[in-house]
């Protein structure tokens, strides 16, 4: 009886708190998807290197800032962080996150060039660097606000922060990339000025935040992980670039791709964050504990809603932006919950095993899960596109 009452409470939380954040993040993600769907052909033809880097950039934002949200949440519960945006640790974490983000995306660009995608390569590098600095600053403070605000309101940050942070990353990533592309095509002077200004801003923030070498070394583990995961994301990038014609031909997935990936990452990140906090608090003693599986089951109950909304929003945007009539995808609606369930079980397993090996899930599990969700999601999107297009 206690288990059923507990499940009932978690289902209530899943539908009142987590589902709300998932839907909001889905809407936010589709804002980014609107830009991707509208300019997909331009990117494919003039800036193909961006398609190789795009999944890595999207995953990197979720990796770095999702991990930061989980870390803030744990610190708040342990009393190691004051619930204030102006807390000095907030700015330091944001600056460190910016520094952590720049090297992996530069490596992704280099590999794309080495693999032969060299058209507009130097311009793409500048676009990627400027976008990373700009988005990291906005997303960093958004992450701090969401985590601290939910904590002060008595809502578990682990239930709402990861989905909102990941989707805000998607919202900002694609429009910022396209904005810099349009600026480049409109005025090279403005393009160069904005690039120089953002690089100077980064140097200024590094100086005033007074990030010490010892603090950077604390994030060595996270930096190595996200760099390796960025390299792993090339699987998604080259898959997306190779099968971009199918994604574009399916129409609906051109708009839904960012939200599809972020939603899978959201489910995985919520489970990882919840698992991490409970492991740190000693609430999970063995792998087959009831606690985490109740979390998974309650979240699974929301997946049909999210899968249907992805369909509906994709159809609406295809009609509104391109004037295309697209049918509801039963293939997507029926398989989405199963894919999300797989990712949640995968997320819990990874988090548990890492913690048992004295590796903090806050620093490793969420980045790993976010990255792997992007790979699984990209392959899933290509398979669904094949079913829709019949190619």
From TrEMBL:
InterPro entries the UniProt entry points to: SLC41_membr_dom, SLC41_membr_dom_sf, SLC41A1-3
GO-annotated molecular function: monoatomic cation transmembrane transporter activity
Subcellular localization: Membrane
Topology in the lipid bilayer: Multi-pass membrane protein
Domain SLC41A/MgtE integral membrane: 55-179, 258-381
Transmembrane segments: 14-40, 90-112, 124-149, 161-184, 190-209, 221-240, 246-272, 293-322, 334-355
Protein's name in the database: SLC41A/MgtE integral membrane domain-containing protein
Organism, scientific name: Thermococcus barophilus (strain DSM 11836 / MP)
